[in-house]
Amino acid sequence: MLGFVVKNSGVLSIIQDAGRFGAFNLGLTNGGPADALAFNWANKLCGNELNSSAIEISVGGLQLTAQVDCVIAITGAPMPLTLNGKAKELWQSFTVKAGDNIQLGFASVGVRCYLAVAGGFTVPHIFGSSATVCRESIGGINGGKLVVNDLLVCQQMSTVSCKNIKLWQLPEYDIPTYSNEVVLKTVLGYQHQHFSVAEKQLFFSSEYKIGKLWDRMGYRLQGRPITADIDGILSEGISYGAIQIPADGQPIVLLNDRQTIGGYPKMGTVFSADCAKLSQYRQGDSVRFKPISIENANNLYHLNAARFNRIKLIRCN
Q1: What is the Cα–Cα distance from 78 to 80, expressed in whole angstroms?
Q2: Which residue in 41, 149, 178, 271 has the fewest CB atoms around it within 10 Å?
Q3: Which Gene3D superfamilies match (predicted)?
Q4: Quick check: 264 pLDDT over 70?
C-alpha cells in the first residue's frame, strides 16, 4: 500500500468524510468537516464524490511526502502552500509525483484547510464513516489525529492518466473570504420562551468574543450574559449549531463533535452554513447573532446548494 507519509502532523490534522449519521443512539456524534463548503470544494476540484475522505488541517503545519503520482487540491483558510519548496495556490487541483514534498504554513486568518486527493484517501469506515472524532477515539487512523510516519493510502495514477487529467480551479470571485467578524443567522427554538423579550433583544444586539475554549465540539463565547427563567432542562438531543445558555449566561455554539445530549436551555440554532463560517474563527474574533425564520433558513439552504452546483470551475492546464 502506498500513498502519503506524514512528516509533520501540524497543530491538528485529522481524516474526515461528510460525517457519521444514524449513531446518536449509540452515543456517537456526527464528526465530519467543520467547514463543509471548503471540504466539498476540495473534493470537487479532484473530481471526487463529496463524501470522499480528505484531511482537515487546523491552523497549519502539515507536511507530507508523496509515494505515488496523483492529483490533489487544498482549500480553506489561506495557509502558505509549497510543493518541493515552490509556492502553490490553494483552491485549485495540481499533480503531485512520487517523492514530492507538500508543506503547509500557518494561517494568519481563518483556521481550517482541506486536502483532498483524486479518488479519496483509503480509510476504513467505522459505523459507516471514516470521520475522526478524537474525543470518542473513532474514525480516521487509530481514532485520533495524524502523527509522524502515518501512511495515508490513496490511488496511484499512471503516467499517462496524470498527463491527460483535467486540472481545475475555483473562480477567484467565488473563493470565500476570511476575516475576524462573523454574523450568525439564528432560528429561535422552542425554549426561547424561557428568555424574556428584553433578554432576546440584548442577545441579538450584543457583540460577543470567542473565548479560549473553541474547538470542533463547540465555541464558548464571552460577552453580555443572557439569563433564562430556568436553570436547566431534562437532557435531550443536541442539534448541530445549537446555542446553549449555561448558568454563567455565556452562549456556547455546538458544532460537529458536540455531545449527543445536553441539559442547558437553548436560545435557538445557528444556520448550518454559518456554523461552517464560525469554524474558521478563533479566540478574540467577534460574533453577532441575527434572527431568521425557519422558512428563510430553509430557502437559504436550498439556494446555497443550487449555487454550489451552478458554479463552473475553470480549467487550469
Answers
A1: 6
A2: 149
A3: Cyclophilin-like
A4: yes
Q: Are 262 and 235 in contact (CB under 8 A)?
A: yes
Q: What is the DSSP letter of 127?
A: T
Cell of 316: 487550469
Torsion over CA: 226, 262, 274, 135 (sign): positive
Calculate ∠ Cα 124-163-98, nearest 5°. 50
Which residues, 6 or more positions from 83, have their beta carbon under 8 angstroms from its beta carbon?
94, 96, 100, 101, 102
For residues 249 and 259, give the distance between their C-alpha atoms in angstroms, rounded to a whole number: 19
Reply yes or no on whether the pLDDT at 161 is more than 70: no
Q: Decide: 210 and 285 in contact? Cβ < 8 Å.
A: yes
Dist. CA 78–CA 105, nearest whole Å = 9
Task: Identify the CATH class of 181-308.
Answer: mainly beta
Locate the DSSP E strands across 59-167. Answer: 62-66, 70-76, 81-83, 86-88, 93-96, 101-104, 112-117, 151-153
Domain ranges of the chain: 3-171, 181-308
Residue 283 has pLDDT above 70, yes or no: yes
pTM: 0.95
Parallel, antiparallel, or unpaired for β 181-188 and 286-291? parallel
Q: Which of 63, 49, 65, 62 is nearest to 17 (CA)?
A: 49
